Every structure is written in structure tokens, then in C-alpha cells.
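Appendix B. Chain record.
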Amino acid sequence: MGTPSDRAPLAERVEELLAAGGPLPIVAAGDPVLRRVAEPYDGQLAPALLARFVEALRQTMHAAPGVGLAAPQVGVGLRIAVIEDPAPVPEEVRVARGRVPQPFRVLVNPSYEPAGAGRAAFFEGCLSVPGWQAVVARHAEVRLRGLDERGRAVDEVVAGWPARIVQHETDHLDGTLYLDRAEVRSLASNAAMADLWSQPTPERAASALGFELP
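C-alpha cells predicted for this chain:
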């Protein structure tokens, strides 16, 4: 896969990844690193190396393109993720999905818990499962806790599409892929999505494909 050996210390593995320059190779489903619980970040990378790694994650996310990327997706088992969403979507999609622009941010050792009982189901994809999407029911609001890249505490309630991104990326750090939470009958190729299921909500897909929504 082009990723460094799991036996190498984390700092050496990151240095090796960064040495190639440009966007990092994204690990695909089937690689064991995506199924392991990532190691909490506790200074394994020196500040300068952490900053370089974060910038590489950002460049890789942009190049993919995506709205989030977790360190295990580039073969590094640390609890670090980046998110950013310019939300270039029509107004009806913004309203239906609660998708609003999110500035670039780094999540270190994040965790989440539901904030309220509400749930929302939408099609979702993953850079580590290219070419496919599926409907995932997730918490409509979550309380996000963790740190930023400077060690400052994060403790906030996140709603709508940003809450979905937070859950998706934090799940990666726990060895969970979105497919583990998906309605299997909703699984659709990107081509099928473009042809059939581009509506703001998945109600038509649920009726036609035979799955339930919360």
C-alpha cells in the first residue's frame, strides 16, 4: 500500500510518509490499520513534525477531495483528524441536511456523545471506500470533546452535517467504518447516486430500495 511498516515508531513512520511530498496515499478498506483503535496522541510527534503532518492531512483531504480525514486513513494509528467543509451545496440541500460551512480545524483525541435523542439519516461516503455511498442514521447533535493541535480543550455541541462529519471521523479513530453503521440495502455506486438518488433526503431511495429511516 506504500505505507511504512507498522513496526516503525510513529514519528519515523510519519517522517517517511512526509518525505515523498504531496498528498499522502489514502488507505483503502481492508487494511488492518482502519480496524484498530488509534493510539491517543500524547506527544509522540514533536511540535514541528505534528504541524507538518497536520498540513499534509489538510492537503490530502483537499486533493481527494473530502470534508474530513483521520490519521489512520493514511496509515498512522494516532487519534488525530482534520475537517473542513466549504459546503458548496444548493439552498434546499443546506436546509435539509443542516450543511453549513466549516472552517479548517484539527481534532486531537476527540470523542463524542449524543446531545438529545434526535437522529438523521443521509447518504454518506468515505475516502477509504471509494466509489460507493450508503445511508447512515446518526445522532443529529453530539457533544464533541477533545483538544486542538495546540492542546487547547474542545468541548462543544455540534449539529447537522458538521455533527455527521465529527462522528464519521471520530469513528475512524475507533476502528469503525461508516459501512458498519449503514443501511446495507441503501448501498449505491457513485454512478447510481448521480442518476437516481441526488435528492436532498433519502426518502425516495428508502422506498425504492426497501430500507427504513429513523
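Further analysis of this model is presented in Appendix C.
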